[in-house]
Amino acid sequence: MTLPLKVLRIDSTVKLPTYGHAGDAACDLFAAHEVTIAPGERVQVGTGVAFEIPEGYAMFIWDKSGLSHKHGLKTLGGVIDAGYRGEVQVGVVNLSDVPYTIEKNHKVAQMVLQKIETVELVEVEELSVSSRGAGAFGSTGK
Questions:
Q1: Distance between alpha carbon 20 and the CA centroid of its chain, in Å?
Q2: What is the mean pLDDT of residues 121-128?
């Protein structure tokens, strides 16, 4: 099934988001400008595009695996709500020990559009018992 997603190119010189391969879950987002990120530095990278996300959906921004695994770049934040109409900005932190330059029109992140459910929060005195319980990080062992 294909869902139409309206995209506005704010900067006429930037690449529109594209899927790398048929059937991919995520669509690549491209940098609207060149930016060099020093080790430990956090930056906002504009994409030069805005979207009209349909009601009942949200856009989630994720790392490009090559940038994160090979170069230590990690995206920050990453939830774009249906009501937002501004330029999509990608927060990026450089976790490596060397500077990295993202060039204009190079991939910076990827986006996934997902259907969301709105919940009604119901405060309770206790939660039901489960096999996991409150077991958190490392609860399943090595």
A1: 16
A2: 95
CA distance 69 to 65: 6
* Nearest by Cα to 106 from 37, 63, 47, 27: 47
Annotation: CATH topology of 6-115: Deoxyuridine 5'-Triphosphate Nucleotidohydrolase; Chain A (2.70.40)
What is the pTM (predicted TM-score) of this model?
Answer: 0.88
b/e 2-29 (16+ beta carbons within 10 angstroms → b): eeeeeeeeeeeebbebeeeeeeeebbbb
Q: Which 8-state DSSP code applies to residue 71?
A: H
**In the prediction, which pLDDT does 77 show?**
86
Residue in the structure block whose two tokens are 């060099």: 36
pLDDT at 82 over 80: yes
pLDDT for res 132: 82
Q: Tell me the DSSP string of 48-96.
A: SEEEEPPTTEEEEEE--HHHHHHH-EEEE--EE-TT--S--EEEEEE-S
